[in-house]
């Protein structure tokens, strides 16, 4: 199956975006894919902020992007745009780092006013990096993602269904197995 790089671009250690991605990673693994998680916030600040293309962490991240068949990019939306952390990372990758890749854009945010940020802010930047295919993405409201005291993630039914659909479309684009609904 495919190798997928799952990129969380949230600056927060307790990020709903990252938790949501790790939840979707499990679905992709169940479909037979190898998933490599990457939390951009763990990359050294001096590499990102100093625009150090030769920094070992940036070289390693570029190699992960190159190795991946597909990339899931999750970002919180701030002021109608993707995170500055994601912008810093994308600026340090080669111009056509996504060439030949299938990409799934995902976003989280506090209000439906930001729902078009995927299409009007993130998708054009990703497209400029030459992917073979950008699958339909999904915006999830923060209020639809809850984390229990034990760390378990719950996604509201409507959002969970939509996320499953876009994740499965992405998986199928990479040659994954469809998920069969449980017999009820």
Task: Describe the 3D structure.
With about 180 residues, this protein is of the alpha/beta class. The chain has a single domain, classed as Flavodoxin domain (Rossmann fold, 3-Layer(aba) Sandwich). About 40% of the residues lie in helices and about 25% in strands. It has 6 helices and 9 strands, in the order E-H-E-H-H-E-E-H-E-H-E-E-E-E-H. Strands 1, 2, 3, 4, 5, 6 and 7 form a 7-stranded mixed sheet that branches.
In short:
It is built from 6 helices and 9 strands; from the N terminus they run βαβααββαβαββββα.
SSE layout and pairings?
Blueprint: E1 3-8, H1 16-30, E2 34-39, H2 45-49, H3 56-67, E3 70-78, E4 81-82, H4 84-92, E5 102-109, H5 117-127, E6 133-134, E7 138-141, E8 145-147, E9 153-155, H6 157-173
Parallel strand pairs: 1-2, 1-3, 3-5, 5-6, 5-7
Antiparallel strand pairs: 3-4, 8-9
GO molecular function, one term: FMN reductase (NADPH) activity
Keywords: Flavoprotein, FMN, Oxidoreductase
Pfam families: FMN_red
Succession of helices and strands: EHEHHEEHEHEEEEH
Total domain units: 1
CATH names the topology as Rossmann fold
What composes the largest sheet? 7 strands, mixed
């Amino acid at each position: 199956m495919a190798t997928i790089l799952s990129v969380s671009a949230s600056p927060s250690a307790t990020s709903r975006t990252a938790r949501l991605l790790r939840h979707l990673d499990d679905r992709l693994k169940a479909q037979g894919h190898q998933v490599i998680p990457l939390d951009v916030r763990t990359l050294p600040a001096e590499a990102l902020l100093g625009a150090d293309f030769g920094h070992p962490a940036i070289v390693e991240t570029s190699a992960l992007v190159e190795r991946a068949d597909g990339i899931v990019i999750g970002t919180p939306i701030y002021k109608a745009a993707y995170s500055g952390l994601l912008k810093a990372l994308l600026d340090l990758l080669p111009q056509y780092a996504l060439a030949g890749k299938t990409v799934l854009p995902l976003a989280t945010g506090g209000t439906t006013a930001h729902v078009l940020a995927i299409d009007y802010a993130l998708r054009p930047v990703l497209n400029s990096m030459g992917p073979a295919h950008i699958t339909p993405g999904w915006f999830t409201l923060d209020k639809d993602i809850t984390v229990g005291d034990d760390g378990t993630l719950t996604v509201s039914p409507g959002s969970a269904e939509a996320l499953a659909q876009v994740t499965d479309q992405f998986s199928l684009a990479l040659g994954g197995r469809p998920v069969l609904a449980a017999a009820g």
